[in-house]
Amino acid sequence: MSRFLALGAVLGTAKIAVATVLDGALNREELPARVDERLAEWAADMLALADIQLSVSGREHLGRSETFVVMSNHQSHFDVPVAYASIPGRLRMVGKTELFRIPVFGRAMRVAGFVEVNRGDRAQAVSALDGARAALGAGTNIWIAPEGTRSETGALGPFKKGGFHLALGADARIVPVSIDGTRDVLPAHSRAVKRGQAVRVVIGEPIDSRAFGSERLPELMAAVRDAIATHLPYA
Asked: Quick one: pLDDT band at residue 127, thresholds 50, 70, 90?
């Protein structure tokens, strides 16, 4: 049964990917708003499919008049619908190049305004972060998982610096987000979805990157890491 649920999740994702690619081909002026609506509907469908019992606290930390770099831990592919069901406002994700190579899905991510980062190509990565800074300035929250990959155990892995350089370059505050429980829904490298799991999301108070500056980058990284780890049982 759980594998059928995983298939349903794949088909649901494929459905919105195709619709987004078509919107892009038609060059619809209202594309960003249509993507926002479609992502919200998709997230709700994915949570219902897995019967996730979601609790969210701290939404008040994401003000409507300010855009943020959102940083979270990464436990599961289900972090994505959980984040879109939890975080208010326009949100686009930073993803690795491998995801953008998936037929249709990758094209949909580009059309939707997701940010592609090629870890093996520094020039491309720098260019991508420039695009993310522009998106922040235009009213889009940028979500990045600084671990760069899913945790095998639920414990926080080492943080990469790219997202912190983005925040510093954009003079943006960082909102730490702790996601706990998605690993029980769909662990890393598993294709079996387990229904009825409790997932908790804690949206922390923003951390001002400008108060640290590039010369105190390690301290900024430690502050964000500590804020995320505070609400994780295996951090």
From this structure: confident
Q: Which residues contact 203 (CB under 8 A, 6 or more apart)?
A: 56, 57, 58, 59, 61, 62, 86, 87, 175, 177
Distance in angstroms (rounded) separating the CA atoms of residues 65 and 141: 11
- Separation of alpha carbons 169 and 214, rounded Å: 9
Cα R_g (the chain), whole angstroms: 17
- 10-37: pLDDT as tens digits: 666 877 878 778 777 777 678 889 999 9
Residues 6+ apart with CB under 8 A from 185: 50, 52, 76, 78, 193, 194, 197, 199
In sequence order, the 6+-apart residues with CB closer than 8 A to the CB of 144 are 69, 70, 71, 93, 94, 162, 163, 166
* 2-229 CATH: 3.40.1130.10
Contact 38, 19 (CB under 8 A): yes
pLDDT the model gives residue 6: 58
The residues near 138 (Cβ < 8 Å, ≥ 6 apart) are: none
